[in-house]
Structures are given as C-alpha cells and as structure tokens.
Amino acid sequence: MMQSTHVYTKTLRDRERDLVRAAVRDIVYPESDYENYLAQIRLAQSAVLPIFADIADRARLSRGYPYYAGAIKIENLPTDGDPPPPPPQPGGLKRIEKASYISENVLLLIATLFGSPYSMECEGLGLVNNLVPTQATSKDLSGAGAASDLRFHIENAALRYLTGRDCSPKALFLTGVRQDRTPPFTRLADARPALALLTPKDRQALSTAQYRIRLPYRWRKVRDGYDGVTTPPVPLLCAGTDGLLVNAAFYGDMIADFGNAAGERAARHFEAALDAVAVDEIVAPGEVLCIDNRVTLHARTPFRASFDEEGRALRWAQRIFVTEDLNNFRGWDAADSAVFAPRFAAPDDGRRRAG
After folding, report:
1. What residue ranges of the chain have pLDDT lower than 50?
2. What are phi and psi of 156, to 5 degrees?
3. Strand 8-11 relative to strand 71-75, pairing
4. pLDDT tens-digit profile of 34-67?
5. Model pLDDT, residue 349
C-alpha cells in the first residue's frame, strides 16, 4: 500500500482551549518592539506548556526521533470570534487592527516552541504575515493571488544558496482569521514517501547539482537585479547534516534551469509523486498548521475569492516563519530584530537570466 503524507493532529479539549485563551487574550500584538512582545508570548507559553507537551516533543519535526513529523495540525484553538474583514489593500500595514489579537498570539505561542520567529519584509511589514487576497492581485503568484495555482514548493528554497548561509525557514505556521465561502486547499506532500515512487535513475538526477532556482516573485522587485537572480546549480534533493533537504519549487518559472532533459523528466516525475502522496488541508480559524520546510512541500489551490461591497476579502489567513539561527540573517536590514530585508548581492554564478 502506498504511504501518504502523515499529519500529526492534536485536538485541544475545550478546557485546554479556554486556558490558552486566558493566557493570551490580554496581549496586544504590536507594530514594533517585537522583543518585548515575544517575551510576553513566552511567559504565556510557560503557563500552558503542559497542554502542548506532545507538540514540544516534536519540535525537531522530521529530525526528531522517534516521531520524524513532516507536518503538524492543532485544532480547537481559541479565536478572535468574528472580526471584521481586513481592509481592501492591507499590504502596507504592519498589523491589521482587531478588537483582540488572539490569532497572532496563538500562532506565535506555538511557533516559538519550534525556533525563533521571523518575517521577510517583502512578504509583509510586520512579524506576522497577513495573507489576504485582493482584487488587484488576483493573478499574482503569491499568497495574495487567489486565482493562481501555487504548486508544490519549499518556501524560499533559493535562499539556502545565495548568501553562504541557510536563510530558508526551518518551518512555517499558518492559521485562519476569517474564511471564504469556498476556501482553497493547502496541499501538503512529504517528500520522503514520494521518493519511494521514483526510480533510482530519477532519484540520482534529482540529487545532481544541475538545477537553478529563482527567487520568489515578490522578491524580484526588492532590489535591482533580483529579477534575474538564480542559484548556482544545486540539487533538488540533498542530504543535510541531519536529514533530507528538499529544494524544489514547481510553480511558475521558479526552476529556471533543469540542467538537461533527464533532469527535467526527473523533476516532473517528482512533482507527480508528490501529488500522489499529498493530503489536503484547509487553513481555518481555530487551527494552526505547521509545515517542516525541509522535507514537506506545500501548495495552495486556486479559488474564487469573495469580496464585500467595499472590496474587502472574506478570506484572511496568517503566517509566520521560524529558524533555528537568526544569525543566518546577519548583514540584512532588520526591523526590531525580527523582520528582515535582503541586502545580499547577486552572486556572479547566479547573475543571469535563464531562457
């Protein structure tokens, strides 16, 4: 029997949910001073840590014996109730005003079990990214592009190879604030069972340093020359110091060069294998989805976004990244030591336009 992607799922009891709410309800998610904010989150976390003992045991995710979890889902978490829709153009905001900030606080409370939270300024100005579709960005290949098919990818895969340090997230965390009438699926595919479906020849091709990966679409407008940056030739699969590391990104033109026909064929077979082992989740209020960004690829299906008469989206999701080492971002511009903007120059080997 073919093995599919396994998502470790934890459902809080109502009493546990209420204890978590009590721990975070008075914390105000700020527009700055994230160090003080995260200190408050960790204090709240210590009050409810026994509730998340099994999650803390899995904090190393795919690297953690005996669990090796590629994805985790936590259900029946406290919510903000029914907040009003986000503004029509939320991209320039560090935060979206709400009567309470329970979704942000719960997201950070869980994420800090796994590492140091951070954000990329080109993804959102605040520590927590608000993923909100807009009518103007419908076809963008980003979280704001509802009509786009964001096929399987590792988040910011190219950033493992452009600075000499791994600047790709260890994991990303998603939660819902509001839901659309017909929400999209967040598809999860653990590469480990997918590899069992490939031939040795395909696995060898994928492990060969012959692929060039582009920066994500939003990143290409950050600095002059970034639209043409690709990595040096890298493998889509490699053995990291403590386990498998996947570098693939299959949406749009993210793979700029496959090396040769065998490399492209192996990549297509890999994407098909990921599709075969994938599971579909819906990012919903009261739930947090944790994705190991080293072995589990994620995708978001296109959907018809709903808007009210003022142009405000019904769907509103949030995201945070974590890393095991914030020092990987030394030399980057930083806002409050948690929101980073790239300053790296395009390496000579990667300063070219493919095609």
Report:
1. 349-355
2. 55, 45
3. parallel
4. 999 999 999 999 999 999 999 999 999 999 999 9
5. 45
Predicted pLDDT at 92: 87
Quick one: pLDDT at residue 202?
98
Characterize the bridge pairing of strands 150-153 and 244-246: unpaired
Residue 341 and residue 310: Cα distance in Å, rounded? 32
Q: How large is the C-alpha radius of gyration of the chain?
A: 20
pLDDT attached to residue 1: 58
Question: SS3 letters for the chain?
Answer: CCCCCCCEEEECCHHHHHHHHHHHCCCCCCCCCHHHHHHHHHHHHHHHHHHHHHHHHCCCHHHCCCCCCCEEEEECCCCCCCCCCCCCCCCCCCCCCCCCCHHHHHHHHHHCCCCEEEEECCCCCCCCEEECCCCCCCCCCCCCCCCCCEEEECCCHHHHCCCCCCCCCCEEEEEEEECCCCCCCEEEEEHHHHHCCCCHHHHHHHCCCCEEEECCHHHHHCCCCHHHEECCCECCEEECCCCEEECCECCCCCEEECCCHHHHHHHHHHHHHHHHHCEEECCCECCEEEEECCCEEEEECCCCCCECCCCCECCEEEEEEEECCHHHHCCCEEECCCEEECCCCCCHHHECCCC
Distance CA 99, CA 258 (A): 49
- The pLDDT, as a whole number, for residue 281 is 98
Tell me: the pLDDT tens digits for 250-304? 999 999 999 999 999 999 999 999 999 999 999 999 999 999 999 999 999 999 9
Query: In terms of Cα–Cα distance, which of 156, 145, 293 is closest to 220?
Result: 156
Q: What is the CB neighbour count within 10 angstroms for residue 346?
A: 17
Token output for 197: 């479906």
pLDDT recorded at residue 327: 95
